[in-house]
Amino acid sequence: MSGSEAAGRPAPACVLGIDLGTTSVKAALLVGTEQGPVVAESCSRETQAHTSSLEAGPQGMEQNVRRIIRALNECLAALPQQQLQKVSHIGVSGQMHGIVFWKKDRGCKWTECGTGTAFEPEEVSHLITWEDRRCSPTFLSSLPLPQSHISLATGFGCATVYWYLQKSPDFLKSYDAAGTIHDYVVAMLCDLKKPLMSVQNAASWGYFNSRNKSWNTDILKKSSFPVHLLPEVGDPGSIAGRTICAWHGIPKGAKVGIALGDFQCSVYSCLTEKTDAVLNISTSAQLTVSMPPGFQPPETPDPSSAVGYFPYFNGDYLAVAASLNGGNVLATFVNMVAQWTEELGLQVQESAIYTKIIKAALAQNDSKLSIHPAIFGERHIPEQLASVTNISVSDLSLGHVTRALCHGIVENLCSMLPVRRLMEMGVRRILGSGSALARNEALRQEVERIFPFPVVYGKDVDAAVGAAMVMFHRK
Q1: How does strand 387-389 pair with strand 370-372?
Q2: Which pLDDT value is given to residue 162?
Q3: What is the rounded CA–CA span in Å between residue 143 and residue 161?
């Protein structure tokens, strides 16, 4: 018997946080202590969900929803049953911008599994993710102008719907509901007849006015957009419903929060001081600062601005320089080296290449080589891709190139939200996080070289923990 039970108080309830990321699913169990919530258990599983796109070909970036839900079920099955049975609240976050379609009455089926009951997707489309590139700049410029502070980009839910409307209208007729992947999970857990979406995710789809918290329905209807597919919108931190089944041992009737943006939850998990900026480099990269209370974003977007404003919690906003080029640039470089090696008749594991290139970069303190690393473009300048300049014979080693690549990734992000602006915003410290930073010392060195602030690592930025913390603080 624990101390709290012995004293006549019930054992602390657990809060489950779930994050449905681009490459993996993570679950974290938080338990209340006198010092505040702590992570009792966590688990993560690769989704391996990428799949080819029938309609969009190589420009499409789609994921198989069954594989995502399988990874989620594996994650929960790996957590201790006795703790799952104490879960009272569930917080859910996931990759923003993307869209999945389903049939309301055939969204999933609940089945018995080794750890109780679980749901499996039924009549559900692929998830078209934020990395999708089917909407060309020409196509986007043909769409009506949104009444929103966020510029429309390829991979945004509403842009993808417009693409189907023009290229494959029959596809849309098969479905009567849509949401992000995490909205889908919440809708299934609570059996929501109409999906519910937080302001955070709605803003990430485009055609959403964050000031009055409503879709641009008039603009959309005029161009025959299927507005019946748009979810209801609610405040982040509110409750979407209750679980309709005992899910992996979690009691039926547990409260489920409205699905949140993974980005906002990551920031929530670590940002405690207003004078901190969060630098996250994982697949992509972001530099984030919280705006003062009462800040309102401009009425219309500035497409050429590299800084966006994301709805946070309690009506506040985050200023974000969001680069599409982060760890994915290094991963592409590693893949290129592996392919060249294979073409030369040799074979080296990509993981071994990673280790070796970082080691080589650490041996080169500097590189005169200049790499602008935007192989994936940037939302504010999609046409400007990567380039390498200042190439000299003395800077051609693997170490020089990797060092220049690491410098370029950080420099690119810093050019979007410059040091001068950070100082004006009162930033005094950088919190460094993300998988690419964690495993690459050369990248960390470049962060310290470029930013004139103390940099603190290991402030674990974790969207699953953030989603659980939001529920904990709202309990």
Answers
A1: antiparallel
A2: 98
A3: 11
Question: Is residue 175 within 8 Å of 161, Cβ to Cβ?
Answer: no
The percent of residues above 90 in pLDDT, for the chain, comes to 80
CA distance 464 to 17: 5
For residue 449, give Cα distances in angstroms to 190, 233, 245, 365, 446.
48, 43, 52, 11, 5
Listed in sequence order, the residues at least 6 apart from 272 whose beta carbon sits closer than 8 Å to its beta carbon are none
Closest CA to 279 of 18, 24, 459: 459
DSSP assignments along 171-192, one per residue:
HHHT-SEEE-HHHHHHHHHHT-
Amino acid at 193: K
CA distance 253 to 264: 26
Token couple for 60 = 């499409």
Distance separating alpha carbons of residues 297 and 295, to the nearest angstrom: 7
User: Helices 181-190 & 65-77, crossing angle to 10 degrees?
Assistant: 60
Strands 87-94 and 255-257: parallel
Residue pair 290/312 in contact (Cβ under 8 Å)? The answer is: yes
* pLDDT (tens digit per residue) in 184-217: 999 999 999 999 999 999 999 999 999 889 999 9
Max Cα separation, the chain?
Answer: 75
Provide the 3-class DSSP secondary structure of residue 448.
Answer: helix
How many Cβ atoms are within 10 Å of 412's Cβ, its own excluded?
23
**pLDDT class of 311 with cuts at 50, 70, 90:** very high
Based on the number of CB atoms within 10 Å of its own CB, is 340 exposed (0-12), middle (13-18) or buried (19 or more)?
A: exposed
Mean local confidence (pLDDT), 455-463? 81
- The DSSP 8-state label assigned to residue 131 in this structure reads T
CB 145 within 8 A of CB 32: no
Give, in order, the Cα–Cα distances in Å from 5 to each of 29, 34, 63: 20, 15, 45
pLDDT single digits (tens) 352-383: 999 999 999 999 998 999 999 999 999 888 88
Question: Which residues contact residue 1 at a Cβ distance below 8 angstroms, ignoring those fewer than 6 apart?
Answer: none
Buried b (16+ CB within 10 A) or exposed e, 423-448: eebebeebbbbbbbbbebebbbbbbe
Distance in angstroms (rounded) separating the CA atoms of residues 465 and 200:
17
β-bridge mates for residue 250, sequence order:
247
Radius of gyration over alpha carbons of the chain, in Å?
23
Mean pLDDT (whole number) for 178-183: 98
